Every structure is written in structure tokens, then in C-alpha cells.
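Format notes (please read before filing issues)

Several people have asked whether sequences and C-alpha cells are stored in separate files. They are not. Every record keeps both together, in the order shown below: the sequence lines, then the C-alpha cell lines. Line labels are part of the format and must not be stripped during preprocessing.
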Amino acid sequence: MYKKRRFDKRYLFILVVIAIALVLVVLAVSLQKDRDLNPIEKVAKDIGTVVLKVVSAPFNFVHDNIEAMIEKDNVYEKYKELKNKEEQLDSVISQNDNLRSEVDKLKETLDLNTVLSDKVYLNATIVSRNIGYWYEEVTIDKGSKNGIEKDMAVVTPKGLIGKITKVSNYSSTVQLLSNDHMSDKISVKIKTKDDYVYGLISMYDSKTNTYTVEGISENVDIDKGADVVTTGMGTVFPSGLMIGKVKEVTTDNFDLSKVIEVEASVDFDDLDYVTVLKRVSN
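Then the structure lines:
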């Protein structure tokens, strides 16, 4: 039976060698200077150019797409980097604004110390404030080891905020004037054209940030915007501590005395640094 002869690999090797030799010969001839191409070389060159374009096109396409993907990745990485820097910048701006605010408050406290030169004072920082008792009390970072004692007045550069009620070695509790259960009626005086009139703070309204002052004679004229300060009567608050300014003047239900609505000089929602006062010992 006839068997199909298998192609001998040696013939393939000979053909490859001959092809390589022909290519080398063509290249050697083509490298000669100032020689015109013969028709066969022209056809071969044109065919080679077309084949090269056809063969290289997929590779160029893949290469271009890879380059585009790499570029997109680079752009995305740069975008993430810029986005991160933008977020960091927002954080830095926020921190800078916060630090500027703290510096301004500290400057105000230093100015207050100059004003209170006739009193003994101690600067402190509010370290704790309970949300449930927001308008009742705060905790400061100074205690008996720093010379703090019960019933000392506590102020900010804007005015009086309260008094010390509890003292430990390194912290103290400040009862705020905004406390609904403020046990003491605080004596205040209001500037008039010729003199002062005296009254008592009876309550505080957190919604309007105002005090109600009662006990003032009905026949006294009080202007809106007049300063309201402590009288110094009693054993807690020295004289002249700012409370606020007159906002509105009305009379009581019996038309016997005036009721003064006083806008607090202190924003009880924004307390950071305070100064603790005590009277100078004679």
C-alpha cells in the first residue's frame, strides 16, 4: 500500500538558509550608493512597505491603546493626588481659621488682664461641657492647686459668665449665668444720663440670649443700649463686670416698676477661654 511521504525537515532548513542568503544579497546590493532600484527591487520594496504597514498596524493599535490606558491611569493618579491635596488644603484652612479665632480670643484675654489690673486673676481653659447641661455649667482646667476657690467670679473679655461652684485639685465647675437655677439674684446697675439705677437679674432666656432685670422704679428713664454691669454688692461679683446692654424697657403687670430686657454681652454657645477673678485682699 502506498504511504504518503512525510516532508523532510532538512529541506525546510535549506529553504530558510537560501531565503536568508537572498535577503542578505539584496541588502548588500541595495546598500550601494547612487544606484537606482531595478523593477524587481521596486516591487519588492513596495510590497515590503505594504506588508510592514499591515503587520505593524495591530501592534501600533495595541501600543497606542496601552499608552492611552497608562496615560489615563497617570491622569487619574494625579487627580487623586490633587483631590487629596485639596481636601488637605480645606482642612488646613479650617485649622488656620480655628487657630486664628483662638489667637484672637487669647489676645482679648490678655487685654482683659490689663483692664483687671486691680483684681487678682487666673486664666483657664474650658475642658468639658455636658450637652444635657449646656447652659448650666462648664468645667475648667484650674483647681485648688492653682488658687481657685468656691464663689470666685468667672469672666471672658465680653463680660461675666458665672461663678465657681465646685473645686477639685486640678479642675473646677463654673455655674453659668444662663443657668435657670441660678440661686443668687445678681445685683446690677444700669447707666442713665445722670446716674445709675439698680435692679436684680431674675432670669435668662437662651432663645434670645437675654436677661430680665426687675426691681427698677417706674419713673426712671432708661435708654436702649445702656450698659448693664455688676454693682459689687454682695460677696461674689466685683463691681463693674459687664452683663450686657438694654434691649427693651417695659413695665410689670401692676405698672409699678420697669422690667428691663438686657441682651447678654457674652455668647454662651461660644466659650473657650475664661478668667477667674477674686477680690484683692486688704
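For reference, the curators noted about this record: The radius of gyration is 45 Å. The chain has two domains: 40-115, 120-278.
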